[in-house]
């Protein structure tokens, strides 16, 4: 459905001409996200405030065009792609941190704030916003909320939805709503906040966020443990939780992940590593020391070949850089990537690891695994050349098989990336028809004319 | 709408005759909750499993009668009252703890489990389920979920919704749904779990709950601080949080609360206490010692007359008994009680305390304040004789005035008790018409024939 000139003129009047474009160079910049799939929108608009967004959405309803909200387009599942054309609403001008309330451990921010900037600002006040998606340097709070982003610290601190106290949003109809509270408790009416968080931009456009903060932990220490076998590392993770130790992160990297990072950064991380765990603990100095000692004993008990605690902040940062470089480094193995985000109960991590290994052997595909072992969230990535149709078919079948196995183990097919378009074909493997129908009806309540972010989550 | 004999027969066939009654003695037992309002139901039924509940709800839709789910009827706002008649579905036979999964820090339980029994069971496994509503000895998990119950430990650990990973429920149509996950992360589809939690039994009947657990803290210490003035206590609470100390509870009692407990239990708690704080810290032994020292310094800085740390577990239990006895002890002051549950930002606690005091002086009413100061959740109770119509009018006007002031301070009119029937007339002081309309439409999606728990939350 192309945009008529007259509608385009009306859009330009809402935000001013400088904040609305349909030049091909601009459209191309807003046609993709981290899935690398391309869908050209009909226009891209940059509203400056809630009222302009409301006007855009009202126009979308009367004139019948689609709108798609977008942060910085770092999403992994197509959430901000204009799959049916339409107008991209880029939220980046709403980028102010409005207030950090030290007394009440609460902050007010606009959705276009880059998450890492928000981290810096609150940490300057000795405060702490735990959710730390690996994309935090180039993703926005609004995007994080829409996908209910997680990150390494989720094992101890939970995920984005646990920190959102309230919202302001524009409904797909253009009406404005406030949800939630400014206090840490509130039970008046249904929890619309947690309906919007994780709704992947399909129920409304968030314009203002009230976030809960914690005091900044006084000390953080980072340690690594190298294992000969991935299974031992997986069992160690299980063992850590079973012994009631909750570090603030337990990340893992398999051999392929370690090797591609070493190659990409031209460094040597570890010698003969079959797998690696990256563990962070935080708290008071005494607490941290105690946890480090406990973990060292435990990891050695699980046959860790080498357990090291980073001596300085700089050493710790090097280790984290390696972990966060995996995503781009993967392309050492192939031009294309299928990137998944399953979660299994932690006690099932060893089984999942064995399954992935057996599929690697069976198919000959390059499958790299890493992720948030502490909460069972495994990112398995199949590296391939999508132009090789036989390889692509094998890869897609493998994804399906791993999804089914995930669900058999009591897990879920998405821990933090969302469903978007990439997991939409698999939605009914996890959700039943009654549940899907309920959610679609909720969608219709919010968006009677179906103009907001179509083609996402629910198969048609 | 009375229940016909033929419908009653059909109900009896679903659960068996022994599990369904319309004898007056039984109806009377299910006609009230903690509000002391009385609404006689037409029948009370005790299903044994999800399938029977499904059959009851299907019958309710085809025959057009109301159903009201009920735990142990300890709710504070009328959530389980049959305000328009109908059939009480007493959930008490679904009372099994199904599994405590130590490896994955997860438990599976039925809604009729008494919360304190659940606490005991998980603590026997060295595990911890933090939500601890003061009613835990006589309220159920299902009831707690329906109201999103809080409790003293919310200041550090959050509330019920933060611990529910997933649910099974029967929709008002009789269809069965599963929501959420068994893992600590999951973002597939909309968050139906947190739509059901806190929906006060109006969107579905919960039949199975997956709960997240934590490791049991190794040490807990309890301290009290007595102040000459309530305002100093309130400022100390603010100060504790501002200094980034998060104890696991910060409870307060005003002078009237202290005196009525002393009278009721025939003990002397403290001499000349204007107000008291009851503070609990938990963690490793070192952590706890450190926090106690920090708090002692801080509290003395806020002019605490007397700061004491309980030496033994038994001493600590005596202090908690005093705190939990307030509710029944209040009736020392009058035969009737209007009990509210507001939350204000913590920095506004002193202002709210001053407002309550000024209204006490202005009206001459007996207003007792106590509660969860750590999260700004103040239970103010007006003790009166409801048969004195002048006193009742004054009391209701005072409630309205305090609600308005709460909202002015950025708070909410209910932190944990829910809206039910008692706060329904005030709902539109906190929620706007667009928000209420959205919620009512969501209700209609779940309950197209409006048979589940009518007359609650939303004004007609």
Which descriptors apply to this entry?
21% strand, alpha+beta, 460 residues, Uridine Diphospho-n-acetylenolpyruvylglucosamine Reductase, domain 3, 19 strands, Vanillyl-alcohol Oxidase, Chain A, domain 3, 8-stranded antiparallel sheet, homodimer, globular, 5-stranded antiparallel sheet, 36% helix, Uridine Diphospho-n-acetylenolpyruvylglucosamine Reductase, domain 2
Helix content estimate of chain A: 25-40%
Poorly predicted ranges of chain A (pLDDT <50, ≥5 residues)?
A: none
Number of self-contained structural domains of chain A: 3
What is the 3D form of chain A? globular
Mean pLDDT of chain A: 94
C-alpha Rg of chain A (nearest Å): 22 Å
Number of strands of chain A: 19
CATH architecture of the largest domain in chain A: 3-Layer(aba) Sandwich
CATH homologous superfamily grouping of the largest domain in chain A: FAD-linked oxidases, C-terminal domain
CATH structural class of the largest domain in chain A: Alpha Beta
Strand coverage percent of chain A: 15-25%
Which class of secondary structure composition applies to the elements of chain A? alpha+beta
Query: What oligomeric arrangement do these chains adopt?
Result: homodimer
Enumerate how many helices of chain A there are, as a single number: 15
User: How far from one another are the termini of chain A?
Assistant: 18 Å
- Main sheet attributes: strand count, strand direction, barrel closure of chain A: 8 strands, antiparallel
CATH topology of the largest domain in chain A: Vanillyl-alcohol Oxidase, Chain A, domain 3
Using a beta-carbon cutoff below 8 angstroms, give the protein chain pair with the largest interface and the number of residues from each chain: A-B, 88 and 89 residues
